Amino acid sequence: MSDNIYTRVTFFSGENVPLEMHKARMVQRVNLISATERLDVLTRTGNNTFLLPNREVFLDMLTDSGVNAMSENQYAAMLLADDSYAGSETFYRLEKVLQGFFGTKYYLPAHQGRACENILASAYVSAKTPNVITNYHFTTTKAHIMLRGGTVHETVADSALATESDVPFKGDYDMGKFDALVKKLGAGSIAFVRVEAGTNLIGGQPVSLASMREVSAYCRKNNLTLVFDASLLADNLFFLKTRERECLDRDLASIVREIGSLMDVVYFSGRKLGCARGGGICTSNEAAYRKMRDLVPLYEGFLTYGGMSVREMEAMAVGIQETLDIHNISQTPLFVEAFGLELQSLGVPVVTPFGGLGCHVDASRFIPHVPQEQYPSAALCSAIYLVGGVRGMERGTLSESRNPDGSEHLSNMELVRLAVPKRVFTHSQIKFAADRIGWLHKHRDLVGGLEFEEEPATLRFFLGRLKPVGDWQRRLVDAFLKDMPSGL
Ligand code: F0G
């Protein structure tokens, strides 16, 4: 009997429901403030959802990073943590878990995903090897590579950029594009080739095992270092299990070990993989290990803690093992699907097929009248907060860096990501968010653009401050109050 039967049930009424395979034993109070108050908050925080205080947010759908609900076994493991600068038992336990999980020999601890990227970029990107090839870039990955004078080249098929699609593995390499890039750049100029699981910026879209095998074979033949970003492996694993024929009957552990064997270096954000807060780099390649090892004490901390709290390391060790539980890894994708179907039924354009991480609303189709230079994804993010107290994340032009000449680098996609961290939200909260976004869609003509008030030079989406072009936010709130007089 397939495990899926337990996680997605059909009610007698015919409704399909992502059934929670856990119960809540500790909860956090959340606040729902009125639309008028939300307008004040948004104005005060520069229309940047990163700057909103939690107390003024109803549903925090900014990210799944570091905010997945942990299991009772993770909390229990935290009590066993062995605090010491060097030689901590906790480190050896975590190292052993990772060796078994990926089948790799060495583990270099680092405090989060971007710390691994810093180490990788320091070790591999140079004037002689400035090029990195990847299925699709991630913001922090690209920033670390660019900081060292490198350039990122992308290889997903053009069809992966269509927001409405039925391609099951949009994160796959287009081998024709890849081969042409390697020939054009010259293999000797390539720092490393990267595969990102659960390709974040195109909507949490998975990579197939078949594609990973092809890329690996190509890299081995051409002597290229293959790096795997496993931060979003949990979601990707669920899609392998449910979308890729040969994985349907394979156990999760053997799939992960095969992926580990295809790669030269694996790194991950433990804020995502393992549902705690940490990270690290795994490899069986001694030369790669030596190349990066000395950078850990320099940037992170000694080799047996890498800048992490030992309590988080214990929680991560348990969380990583729990990635092999289908009920754990199905939770986000099934909730994303339920969210997406609800939004679609209200006419809201969303990225399909539904991916992992969160539900991705397509701002270019939602508010086509807002030009990319006025950051439609950020504007829609603000509007969603105004009408529902829901904190989403801009994933469009604002998340890009400007071109070296100062002009805007227009994003391939204009998305608002509404993250669905594991086991955090209830089905009725998801329905609430969909309902308010449905209302907004009916009033989409009222939504306008944004412009910068204060623009940081790097990763501007984190701390930048913006303001609306015109007074559309006031008018949007007035329209909302007419239909929802309580303002909630
Ligand atoms: N790689 C991927 C694919 C990620 O999604 C992230 C983080 C990182 C690397 C960096 O990891 O945050 O631990 O330093 N993604 C978060 C997000 C920020 O919200 O999508 P980190």
Write the layout of secondary structure elements.
Blueprint: H1 4-7, E1 8-10, E2 16-18, H2 35-44, E3 59-60, H3 72-78, H4 89-102, E4 106-109, H5 113-124, E5 131-134, H6 139-147, E6 151-154, H7 175-185, E7 190-196, H8 209-221, E8 226-229, H9 233-243, H10 252-262, E9 265-269, E10 279-283, H11 286-293, H12 295-299, H13 310-322, H14 326-329, H15 331-345, E11 358-362, H16 363-366, H17 376-388, E12 390-391, E13 393-395, E14 415-419, H18 427-442, E15 450-454, H19 460-463, E16 465-468, H20 472-483
Helix pairs in contact: 2-17, 3-13, 4-13, 5-6, 15-18, 17-18
The structure holds ligand F0G.
Residues 63, 65, 112-114, 138, 140, 196, 200, 229, 231-232, 269, 271, 279 line the site of ligand F0G.
Q: Can you give a write-up of this model?
A:
- The chain is an alpha/beta fold and 488 residues long.
- The chain has two domains: 35-64 and 328-483, Alpha-Beta Complex (Aspartate Aminotransferase, domain 1), CATH 3.90.1150; 72-324, 3-Layer(aba) Sandwich (Aspartate Aminotransferase, domain 2), CATH 3.40.640.
- Helix content is 40%, strand content 13%.
- It has 20 helices and 16 strands.
- The strands form five sheets. Strands 4-10-9-8-7-5-6 form a seven-stranded mixed sheet, with helices on both faces.
- Strand 1 (8-10) and strand 2 (16-18) form a beta hairpin.
- Helix 4 packs parallel to helix 13, helix 5 runs parallel beside helix 6 and helix 17 packs across helix 18.
- The longest helix has 16 residues, at 427-442.
- The structure holds ligand F0G.
- Ligand F0G binds next to helix 5.
